[in-house]
Write a structure and sequence with these properties.
Elements lengths: L6 E11 L5 E8 L3 H9 L7 E5 L7 H4 L4 E4 L7 H8 L3 E4 L4 H4 L5 E7 L2 E9 L8
Parallel strand pairs: 2-3, 3-4, 4-5
Antiparallel strand pairs: 1-5, 1-7, 2-6, 6-7
């Protein structure tokens, strides 16, 4: 993530953990449906880990979940399809945050922490000017 002085915590979202002890981090991208997510993923040219932000995930998202470092959704629970998909493809997921797609912006830096049944998505923003100084 760079150094701690390059980013500032914006907010934390809480939800259900799909995988009880997973952690991940990466750059957020918001996709409201599988087709737009596929198009966005095809445009990734670098190897930066990406975190998918979507209303929900189900089996139609499984190929997308294989290509991201983590998932944060508005809807879903520990026993939802999103939890099944995330567990099978072994990706960290925070499900059921209620408002991830409206609060998280493309390019925000996300840390996912799953502990037991609960999960957190810590959302960071770069400090303007800091990243340009490197």
């Amino acid at each position: 993530m760079g150094t701690n002085s390059d980013f500032r915590l914006k907010f934390v979202l809480q939800g259900w953990a799909a995988n009880s002890t997973r952690r991940s981090e990466g750059v957020a991208f918001v996709a409201l449906d599988p087709a737009s997510a596929r198009a966005i993923i095809e445009n990734f040219r670098d190897k930066t880990p990406r975190i998918l932000i979507s209303p929900l995930i189900d089996w139609s998202w499984s190929d997308i979940a294989n290509n991201v470092a983590g998932v944060v959704t508005d809807h879903g629970t520990r026993v939802s399809r999103g939890s099944e998909v995330s567990s099978i493809v072994q990706v960290a997921a925070v499900l059921g945050t209620r408002d991830a797609t409206t609060k998280i912006k493309d390019g925000d830096y996300i840390q996912i922490i799953c502990e037991g049944n609960e999960a957190l998505a810590k959302v960071f923003e770069p400090i303007i000017g800091k990243l340009d100084d490197r």
